[in-house]
Amino acid sequence: MPYYADFPIILPTGEELIFEQWSIGSRFEPCAAIYVVTKKSCLDQNSRQVLREAIDIDEKNDLQRALTDRTVLHGYMQHGTDIVVLIYKEEDAARRTKIKEELQRLKGMAG
Fold this sequence. Notes:
Number of strands: 5
Largest sheet: 5 strands, antiparallel
Helix content: 25-40%
Shape: globular
Radius of gyration: 13 Å
Distance between the termini: 30 Å
């Protein structure tokens, strides 16, 4: 299943980022992005709860390569079949790193 919804996440700065919601195993285009792997069942909650339930928060220069690695996908699937990927495309590497760090900080605050 490909892209099927948007999911807003509000950073501590007040900036709202609209992430694309994709199913795990989708065919992603090669692009630079931040991604959050989480459980689909928690998407009806607020963004902090989604981040608290996150299995992985990362950023990559090539999303396609990062999320088609069978070993990585198998690791995510160990958490069950209720897994989705939230993606925010961002070409600027420094900005991706900053957003990733803010998301990880929010994950820690939500716990």
